[in-house]
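Subject: Interface between my chains keeps coming out wrong

I've been trying for a while to get a sensible model of this assembly. When I model each chain on its own everything looks fine, but I need the whole thing in one frame so I can look at the contacts. Pasting all components below, labels as-is. Any help appreciated, I'm running out of ideas.
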Amino acid sequence: MKKVLERSKLLQGGPPTSVVLATCVDKEGNTNIITLGMFMYISQKPPLVCIGVTDRRYSHKLIMEQGEFAINVPPVEIIDEMHQCGITSGRDIDKFKEHGLTPIAAQKIKSALIEECYGHLECRVWNHYECGDHTLIVGEVIAASADAEVLDENDNLVITKALPVIQKNWNYHTVIKT
Amino acid sequence: MKKVLERSKLLQGGPPTSVVLATCVDKEGNTNIITLGMFMYISQKPPLVCIGVTDRRYSHKLIMEQGEFAINVPPVEIIDEMHQCGITSGRDIDKFKEHGLTPIAAQKIKSALIEECYGHLECRVWNHYECGDHTLIVGEVIAASADAEVLDENDNLVITKALPVIQKNWNYHTVIKT
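Reply #2:
Try treating it as a single job with all components included. I did that and got this:
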């Protein structure tokens, strides 16, 4: 039976989403981490991805000022660290130190990557649009890397090895083959 | 060990995504279905969602002309039908008839919804942006519904009941609680 959803529950009619950790950098070169449920691919040629970030977040300012960010994809093993990165602010703390994550150098951008994540997209801001209560930021992927163990022989991602985090209402899940 | 991904494999460093079925309507009121791997929430107030559609698809024309679409979220039970909707064109066939899906009336838009899907977001086109090889279409959710069985007592979606489809490289998975 179909149930009509009232206004405050409209988005419960939609799908779950992957959780990603975006990293970005301040003027002094310190990398911050933000937990995001808003991510989408939008183009293959050129390779473009979208994220949604509210301007109340410290990372919004850093991404806009420095014009770059990285997407780091966490495996279920680091759900607790991922969750903590979502409820603390880089204005107050160094999230790498505080939450026990390891920064590693990116290939082409200043922001550090998160070693404990299995995949990494290094992005330059390509455009941005104000959409309701979030800014939709489009990034061009200028470099990428992944843990060798989660790739097949053709360098395609095998998500049953990667075990990414899928959420709805911030309840965390991972994937299983159908 | 981190492996650098070459240009054609850059997006393998990213997360998997949900699969959704968008429905949209032609001038005569015939509803078409398109299978999409590009979906994102972008705003709570107002409720806005994004999809990515290439202008080579018949549905791109319909959504742009009629200014509306619905997001229907398929459960794993209809993976075959969902897959078929992605590899056929509504220019040639009626995908409901051809793939054994059932159209039901929406609350506020002309496009039919897909009964076999567990959740439905009825959207009016709010804005659109050209982003590389796809158009990023932002829709305002003006009505929504879901199968009563996949909602908890507060009308929040329980995805371990809904069993949505998660894909990377069009290999299909569903979710399991961590």
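Reply #3:
Confirming on my end. The two ends of chain A are 25 Å apart (CA to CA).
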